Amino acid sequence: MFIDIDAKEPLKLLADLSRKLDNTKPLMGNIAGAMMDAVEKNFAAEGRPDWIDLTDKTKDKRKNWPGKILQDSGQLAASVNPRYDANEAAVGTNHVSAPTHQFGAKEGEYGSTKTGLPIPFGDIPARPFLKLGEDDIQEIDGIISDFLDV
Questions:
Q1: Which of 28, 45, 105, 133 has CB atoms 3.0–4.6 Å from 84's, for a disulfide?
Q2: Strands, E assignment, 14-80
Q3: Helix, strand or coil, per DSSP, at residue 91
């Protein structure tokens, strides 16, 4: 005994979904854009949650203070770029100070100067700027849902 059903509509939906999954580069581009927006929000808000404030010593050395944490010259923020292909989406930077600010560093962690001063001259707390908040993750979920909507 067999049960026959009209499966034209489900099969059409599966075919539409298959066509979309053949070209995911636009999806990954939109995700990379949302990730880039998240990083820009992190810099604008000085962390989400807030980054630890600069020390008075650091503030005294800054050219432009009052200003924003991690944005004395703007080079770090400007160095962050999105990249994507059909299989992945990412944002990143090759700026030399990025790992120190993202993860933090202990005084002297990078050795010392020729005169024996520690590098860095004091502890630098982690101020993760390459970070997604819950709202960013929800936005990316929405981008994926919109893409898959057939």
A1: 28
A2: none
A3: strand
Question: Does 16 reside within a domain?
Answer: no
14 is a domain residue: no
Compute the radius of gyration of the chain from its Cα atoms. 23
* pLDDT tens digits, one per residue of 21-47: 889 999 999 999 999 999 999 999 999
**Domain span at 89:** 23-148
* Total structural domains within the chain: 1
Q: Does the residue 8 lie in any domain?
A: no
pLDDT in tens, 77-135: 999 999 999 999 999 999 999 999 999 999 999 999 999 999 998 999 999 999 999 99
Q: What angle do CA 83, 88, 92 make, to 5 degrees?
A: 35
How many whole angstroms separate alpha carbon 145 and alpha carbon 150? Answer: 10
Whether the pTM exceeds 0.85: the reply is: no
Judge whether 51 lies within some domain.
yes
Residues 6+ apart with CB under 8 A from 74: none
